[in-house]
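Quick look at the format.
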Amino acid sequence: MGVALGVLYDVFKVMRLVGLNSQVLVFLEDVLFFAISTVTVFSFYMQITDGKFRVYPLIAASLGFLVYFLTLEKLIFFVIKKLYYALYSFFEFVYKKTVLFAFKKLKALAKFVFKPIGKIFHRFFKENLIIFFKKLLPKRRKMLYNNSRSKRKGKGKVRRYEKEQERHKKAFFC
């Protein structure tokens, strides 16, 4: 039992080594390891002792854990680490060849299909939005921003423009 728990601990140690080592994940890994080891030791203990309390199975499991770490730990840790990297490389290869390939093809198809539709919508909404926002602007009879400059250059041009506007209004309303 101690050797099995030592191997399980090495699995969690490899997970920390490869990058799953934020404080929250380390806490969750520790809680998971202790939960698994507690349930395993308790069920093994109940099976061996028939529900009677004995200290010897706990000492034997602890000694098995200690002997594992003094003898086989480096070899098993090396094997688990290589197995993890092999599985990671395999799944990365499968992911790149299937999922990423499919997404690239779907992206190209979406560009081909939606680009013309997007241009039509863009043109339609752009024209309609300009008309909509122009209707929201207040209607002014005089120029707001160029009055001071126009008055400086020559009053004749401004007066002539205003007189012309008044003539058009009178002609329109009469």
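Next, a different chain entirely:
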Amino acid sequence: MAEAIALIDYGAGNLHSVHNALMAAGAEHVAVTADPDLVLGARRIVLPGVGSFRACYEGLTGIPGMVEALEERVLKKGVPFLGICVGMQLLATRGLEFGETPGLGWIEGEVKLIERTDPEIKVPHMGWNDVRLTPHHGDHDLLEEGEAYFLHSYHFQPDDGLDIAAMTDHGGGLVAAVARNNIVGVQFHPEKSQRFGLDLLARFLEWKI
């Protein structure tokens, strides 16, 4: 199982679709798991997330030893990590949905409601939108520009702009992706983003840190 790609099952992700997308992108083995021991042996880790920040955080921290296993493997051992949608938002210091909830704190910042600056702007932000790289998106070439599928009402605002890898626009700039070392998070859904999303997952499967 040391070769497994661990797709974390904490009751808050579109696991079937993400699993199928990883396989379609070229993965040989994807373990959908809530077992911290398997996470400790995984060579790549994917954290999906659908729903509220609070529910996702409580689901993840409700699995004994899971956060500790993730920190050991990702922060200490440096294996490639991909957070998707709320799985990306959980990287933040805190989320402000239904009151303040702590996050993993791997990338400092907070998750807040998208501001409706124009009556024509709809919240949630739903549908296809551009993904534009920032000048400091990193040199690993994991992310590329294109169009992806978004579905979210809250957005991640990192404290340090250098952690922002890509942006999109929905009545103003919104963070589309964050990156730091071996950690990448995307606000969009690769599993719903057709070829753009599959290409991203394929690069993640080959990503060398």
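The chain has a mean pLDDT of 92.

See the schema section for token definitions.
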